[in-house]
Amino acid sequence: MKQPLDVLKQYWGFSAFRDMQADIIDAVLEGHDTLALLPTGGGKSLCFQVPALCMDGICIVVSPLIALMKDQVLNLNKRGISAYAVFSGMSIKDLDRIFDNCVNGDVKFLYLSPERLGSEMAIERIKKMNVNLIAIDEAHCISQWGYDFRPSYLNVAQIRLLLPKIPVIALTATATSEVVDDIQEKLEFKPNRKVFKKSFSRSNLAYVVLQQEDKRTKLLDILKKVPGSAVVYVLNRKETKEIAMFLYQNQISANYYHAGLPAEKRSEIQDAWINNEIRVIVATNAFGMGIDKPDVRVVVHLTLPDSLEAYFQEAGRGGRDGNKAYGILLYNQSDRDRLERNFETSFPSFKEAKQVYRALGSYYQLAVGAGFEQSFNFDILEIANKYNLNPLLIIPALKLLVQAGYLELSESVFFPSTVQILSDNKTLYDYYLRNPRAEKLIKSILRSYQGILNHDVNIKESQIAKALNTGQSEVETMLKKLHQEKILRYKPQSDLPLITFTIERQDAEHLIFDKARYDFLKNRAAARMKASLHYAEEVHCRSQMLLEYFDEKDSKPCGQCDVCLGRYENPTEEDRKMITASIKKYLLYEPHTLRKLVDRFPSNLENKVLKVLEYLTDNEFVVKNKDQSMEWNDK
To answer: I want to staple 497 with a disulfide (CB 3.0 to 4.6 A). Which of 29, 67, 378, 556 is the partner?
Structure first.
């Protein structure tokens, strides 16, 4: 067996482990079932990658995020470590090839989505593999108590039956005590289990909540006052572009990121931000998982997430280098209204879920009894328009169908275009005679892509177009025509989410839902929403509130959040004199709007300034003009 430190140095170039990593790795190598709770950026992946490389055999890694799996596989391959990822939507031939390599080749890591783990093909091949470790990433997904429960994660229990002597390591960044217990129960941890929990306290990260109506102006103010790299989380795709444009127009380098952008574009934007070519990335919650940028100085949320788990994980992307950083939430009454409204729409009726299921079956032209383990591109707007469905209803209805075990819905994943020649030489020759325009195209791809007669091969239409001195759209049109005429099989690139039918299509009227589970999940969601609102609205140390939510009950005030810095305290007499003198000086010089006047003071004094200003206005020391500007009134 190799030594962990030697493996760390060989593949990652580090000379020492971070806090707790060495202890977790030792527990795994000693054969203990292990649960590791490490905050975002705590180096969870090394806790299973290093011990797996110390031992003979292959490590099975279960992860719900296709983008993260692909990213980790790419990084391992760059380090000379053989790794593959298997997820919904891949062709049978690709699956067969990868599984064969894992059985017969020198592969060290096989990443599997949980729904693919439950497939018969995966189970049969895993039986033949020399498995040394089972790693469960994002392990909170296995628990109904958690904020991101996924029924497909329950498939993981099956692998324990196949490999009863192989240790399991479960990893997560966010889990309450209920979830910690549930993970161990669902994964059937053995009595000699080990649980490692690093405190969720982040002494270098200051949490701030600002009650703010004009969020854009305040965002600009924050980014001007806090230098360095930043992430801004917003509600939807439309807002990512709008806010990025607003920042750009105000001389702040920014770009936007969401799951609807092409994969290559997302990678380009992400790389530019990581390399500090752009300062601010404005994103939906699709951004951040697996991103290791240590020097983020501020993470701003323009909208309140529906769970503290999500907020803690996203805000925690700031200050991973240990230097001072800020997690700032801009909040107002509309956030509460939106969360309460979303909560109501997040739990559709069983009748509405059946309606969506029926529409999917019709859209994909699946007969009742067909479709088992088939995956399809999922375009929510197209389906909504075709079947006159409310787009806001479709995703919650799909989640209900996922929880009931009928479907799986994966995040957007990039599949490049593929081609396989289906015709023999004689058929191709006859086709050339009848279609001379297609001859150059077919001969070009035969020359350029090896194996295209035997299996699907990834192609780039732009490269083919360049070789033929024509346009890409012309190449795509010809390939589609050849596909229709069964000369070849052409699958254009896709960057859409995937719907997988986990069991054959059912008659929608006969779908069965578990009402007790439905009620349980609804109550848990309500509790999480209530905790988020409590964090945003309560005047109490922000860090203490977060730590208490994650069962760290005895933490001390952080001394650096907005509450600890006195933003919500009433101004002392000394404060009143100092603030009044400053306001008088500013307003005697020139009239000010409220925003301009408040912005002249440090942000931690904002609440006190507003209270002093209220007193001065009530007593007519400060008066408002018709244009709403204020000036000093020397009575």
So the answer is: 378
Question: pLDDT, tens digit, for every residue of 148-185?
Answer: 788 788 878 888 888 999 999 999 988 888 999 999 99
In angstroms, the CA 4 to CA 27 distance is 12
Gap between the Cα atoms of 105 and 103, Å rounded: 6
Q: Among 471, 491, 511, which residue terminates a domain? A: 491
Length of the chain: 635
Give the position of tokens 């383990």: 373
Which of 472, 491, 510 is a domain's end point?
491
pTM of the model: 0.76
User: What gap in Å lies between CA 83 and CA 77, rounded to an integer?
Assistant: 6
Q: What is the pLDDT of residues 251-308, one digit of tens each?
A: 999 999 987 787 778 888 988 999 999 999 999 987 876 677 889 999 999 999 999 9
Is the domain of 249 the same as that of 185?
no
Give the other-Cβ count within 10 Å of 375's Cβ.
18
Q: Indicate if the alpha-carbon torsion angle 535, 318, 313, 497 is positive or negative.
A: positive
Contact 456, 93 (CB under 8 A): yes
- Per-residue exposure over 271-290, b if at least 16 CB sit within 10 Å of its own CB, e if not: eebeeeebbbbbbbbbbbbe
Same domain, 409 and 422: no
Residues 88, 76: one domain?
yes
Spatial CA neighbour of 86 closest among 109, 105, 106: 109
Q: Running DSSP on this structure, what letter comes out for residue 494?
A: B
Distance between CA 103 and CA 99 in Å, rounded? 6
Q: Alpha-carbon distance 113 to 69, whole Å?
A: 8
Print the domain residue range for 166.
4-197
CA distance 263 to 412: 9
109: enclosing H helix or E strand: strand 109-112
CB proximity list for 326: less than 8 A, separation 6 or greater: 205, 206, 207, 208, 222, 226, 297, 298, 299, 318
Q: What CATH number is associated with residue 65?
A: 3.40.50.300
Instruction: Give which of 34, 7, 33 is closest to 165, Cα–Cα.
Output: 33
Residues 233/284, Cβ–Cβ less than 8 Å = yes
